[in-house]
Amino acid sequence: MFEDKRRILIISGAVALLVIAALILWWLLSFRRQPVNQPIEPPPTINQVNANLPAAPEQASLARAEQENSFPLGLRQLAMSFAERYGSYSSDEQIQNLRDLEPLMTADLVAVVYDNIAEAPVNGDFIGYSTKALSVKLIASDNSSAEMIVGVQRAQTVNNQVQNVFNDSLALTAVKIGAEWKIDSVRWQ
What we know:
With 189 residues, this protein is α+β, with helices and mostly antiparallel strands. It folds into two domains: 1-29; 72-188, Roll (Nuclear Transport Factor 2, Chain: A), CATH 3.10.450.540. The protein is 38% helix and 30% strand. The protein is built from six helices and five strands; from the N terminus they run ααααβααββββ. A hairpin with a 2-residue loop joins β4 and β5. The longest helix has 29 residues, at 2-30.
């Protein structure tokens, strides 16, 4: 029984010391004084605040803005996505990139593409191309067709080592079938 009372007194004393220490710390932090010799700074004026803001981004050129607005809805993304997949290749899955693109192509283009490809014999070396679309330029368009040039950067890989990085261009013609655009012709330039 004596031990229980002693234990309660020790715990109560420890809690009381923690509360007193917390109050002292709060008092010290809340009543900090500013040094006597240091003047108080006035709040910044609106002009000072505006001077610290970053400069506004440069306005796009009128030609670029016209080019952006003249693209039919969804066509830019279709062209870039098509170019990246069309230009990417792997000797492990030789024509898989073309199979993936079939829903984005017209039936005529699917026939032409498969007539003009031949799977290369596999000799054990891995060969691949990865393609990144960099830009799309609209050459001509109306309500049912559009011609574009997609600027791409391609990287050739042989046995998991990048051998060559180069820029290329892909000319695309798209036609509108129903409510969606499909690629109707494609050629490297």
